[in-house]
Design a protein that fits this description.
Oligomer: single chain
Shape: globular
CATH topology of the largest domain: 2-enoyl-CoA Hydratase, Chain A, domain 1
Helix content: 25-40%
CATH architecture of the largest domain: Alpha-Beta Complex
Radius of gyration: 24 Å
Strand content: 15-25%
CATH class of the largest domain: Alpha Beta
Largest sheet: 7 strands, antiparallel
Number of domains: 2
Length: about 475
């Protein structure tokens, strides 16, 4: 089964600047065409091709025309299908290791412009103050309008320590502004953690990479060692996590779920795109890899949990949040997630290039598609603090905002879960949080994992403490030993 998963190569990702989108290679066997070739359209294509070759103002290489035609076919399908030249395909393979060159931005396209989904933590983009929702309209004075997403990405990549100037349009500002960034080799630390209070741990996953599962186990064991006792509550922070490898998302979910619990299933036209992925080593390990989850302490399966999400939580993040929500394993808190519910398969081509093709939709254990909708939190808590990269002062972009996005096949289905159900909404205003009403918190200091003024985190901790109080109250009374009883 594990080999089957590797062969199919399902991926669940955002689009990254300088970061390879998470992948798993696959080769899909040739299938017989079920429809006759559209001869009129093919004739029109060859006529256009011939006219360009003979009449265009400048000579155009065949290779360029064909590459652009392929790219047009794919980019017109949905925001996540794309053609990759040899360099882009090579970069794609490097990115799953958690190290890449570039600016550190997750992007989409809107009206022909590059739209920032979220800057990645500790990168040139985040340090320069780029925000979710920013529109990039020029790259070094070259207009973005008319470029494909791949062309724009290629321009933003480059050698480390070289500058690039972005012209940015931001909601609420009267005119565009320029920001110069210095390209860098970016090493993304996939898992960060902190014992925020005695008995209460915080784990943040910034991106689902090849070793995220192992890093999660290390983080939990480090928290256990520091606390010197099992935790009484755990916050899993998936805010602004753009996604990554599907098998890593299954592994993270499996860390907290009972063995063989359903994590996610996929459905597409091809038979090999229809899969049920469970909390089993077959679906989160690769090759002969040892089962890293065996190193987890038993209490991890039952420790009270809150999962934080926002509009920057996409794809693999939503798989984890949806699985833990449907399996009634955690309370989901925050704001509506991004809504990327499609699966991409990476198909290498014979000339060193490749395509990223949307081959399936994924569904949570209860059958929900989050495509163009996202995960609805059990408790909606507005963001009152800048947490690494936040929506504040910007505006959250979601899958539904992207051109040509796939529709949601079951958008009318709603599901409720444990403890509190929507529309419970918590804001700094209705909690009397004076700091957050007058000042939307502060940015993380260098080396800081999470801010003590993080409004959503503080609400999560309050809930976990309340759960522990209820557990104590509901616990059966222990018999009191007296002299008469003896």
């Amino acid at each position: 089964m594990r080999n089957k998963l590797q062969k199919i190569g399902l991926v669940s990702t955002g689009i990254f600047i300088g970061v390879a989108v998470s992948l798993n290679f696959s080769a899909i066997a040739d299938r017989e065409a079920t429809q006759p070739l559209p001869l009129d359209e093919l004739r029109a294509f060859t006529e256009v091709y011939g006219k360009i070759k003979s009449d265009y103002v400048e000579p155009v290489e065949d290779k360029k025309l064909i590459s652009q035609a392929i790219n047009g076919m794919l980019s017109g399908l949905d925001p996540h299908s794309a053609y990759m030249d040899a360099d882009e395909f090579k970069d794609l393979q490097v990115g799953t290791q958690g190290e890449f060159g570039g600016l550190g931005i997750e992007v989409g396209m809107e009206d022909g412009f590059v739209k920032v989904v979220s800057p990645i933590e500790d990168t040139p983009a985040q340090k320069a103050g780029l925000k979710s929702g920013d529109l990039i309209i020029k790259l070094d004075d070259v207009p973005v309008k008319g470029m494909s997403i791949n062309d724009a990405v290629k321009r933003m990549r480059g050698k480390p320590n070289t500058p690039i100037t972005l012209t940015v349009v931001r909601k609420g500002m009267n005119k565009p502004f320029n920001v110069t960034l210095i390209r860098a080799i970016i090493k993304v630390k996939s898992v960060k953690f902190k014992l925020v209070e005695p008995n209460f741990g915080y784990v943040r996953i910034t991106q689902f990479q090849e070793h995220t599962g192992e890093n999660l186990v290390d983080a939990i064991n480090a928290l256990l060692k520091e606390n010197k006792a099992p935790l009484k509550g755990l916050v899993l922070d998936l805010r602004n996590d753009p996604g990554g490898l599907l098998n890593s998302a299954v592994g993270v979910s499996a860390a907290f779920l009972k063995p063989n619990s359903l994590v996610v299933y996929t459905d597409g036209r091809a038979e090999d795109s229809k899969m049920h992925l469970t909390a089993s080593p077959d679906f989160y390990l690769r090759g002969n890899q040892d089962d890293y989850l065996k190193a987890l302490p038993d209490w991890v399966k039952s420790v009270p949990m809150v999962v934080l999400v926002n509009s920057g939580s996409a794809s693999a993040s939503e798989i984890v949040a949806g699985a833990l929500q449907d399996q009634k394993r955690a309370v989901i808190m925050g704001t509506q997630s991004f809504g990327k519910g499609s699966v991409q398969t990476i198909l290498p081509l014979g000339n060193g290039t490749g395509i990223k093709l949307t081959t399936a939709r994924y569904f949570t254990p209860s059958g929900r598609s989050i495509q163009a909708k996202g995960i609805t939190p059990d408790i909606v808590v507005e963001e009152g603090t800048v947490v690494g990269n936040s929506e504040e002062d910007g505006f959250g972009v979601r899958e539904v905002d992207l051109e040509n996005h796939l529709t949601n096949p079951n958008s009318t289905v709603t599901t409720t879960t444990t403890i509190v159900t929507p529309p419970t909404v918590i804001t700094p205003e209705n909690t009397g949080d004076k700091m957050n009403k007058t000042n939307k918190g502060r940015r993380l200091l260098p080396g800081e994992i999470v801010s003590k003024d993080d409004f959503q985190l503080n609400q999560a901790l309050s809930l976990l403490k309340g759960i522990n109080i209820l557990k104590t109250v509901d616990a059966p009374a222990k018999p009191v030993e007296t002299s008469l009883a003896k």
